[in-house]
């Protein structure tokens, strides 16, 4: 599947029946040859949108995978860039493909985004395509962790694509995928959490507000607008307020 360099159907099946962590360890060598990897067009658009607010001192790529977003940060940060992921296999690939250069230092950390080992360490946190791995009830913890990892005034930025309408085949594809994953997780352990339709923008904005962020939305102009005039893609930029909210 996905061409000669991508995973086979058997490899995808083995991954899907594994835990999230082990599944991505298995997929890591071929991950960049799958549709699961964030497209360069999204990465580049986010980089262009954030550039006028920079340069930033230190940045974190949350759930960095093979490091595509980390590369974006190397063009936005002057001191250091850190990629964090809980898959050792993904980090191994990231280390090989994102080489240190004349810009910021690069560090790789294996860790859980729901228990970040950082306190007020970054001016910019980005994340690309990882939120389907978090259940809605986990978002408050996730956002509090990001809030604590940012310095006062620091930004948490991530793109959000407009969901397809019911008249589009992609709507039914994503609906079917999520339904299959729910059945799989009801029948098989360990669970593999990946739900494309669980990350709802309205709920996300409310949780960011509760976590102590001031949120701004901007359209990613490269993706145009839908027939009703709404953007096809937005950038969420959540700025950490100080002091942090009470637990």
Automatic annotation (TrEMBL):
<keyword id="KW-0489">Methyltransferase</keyword>
<feature type="domain" description="Methyltransferase">
    <location>
        <begin position="60"/>
        <end position="154"/>
    </location>
</feature>
<dbReference type="Pfam" id="PF13649">
    <property type="entry name" value="Methyltransf_25"/>
</dbReference>
<keyword id="KW-0949">S-adenosyl-L-methionine</keyword>
<keyword id="KW-0808">Transferase</keyword>
<dbReference type="InterPro" id="IPR029063">
    <property type="entry name" value="SAM-dependent_MTases_sf"/>
</dbReference>
<dbReference type="GO" id="GO:0008168">
    <property type="term" value="F:methyltransferase activity"/>
</dbReference>
<dbReference type="GO" id="GO:0032259">
    <property type="term" value="P:methylation"/>
</dbReference>
<dbReference type="InterPro" id="IPR041698">
    <property type="entry name" value="Methyltransf_25"/>
</dbReference>
<protein>
    <submittedName>
        <fullName>Class I SAM-dependent methyltransferase</fullName>
        <ecNumber>2.1.-.-</ecNumber>
    </submittedName>
</protein>
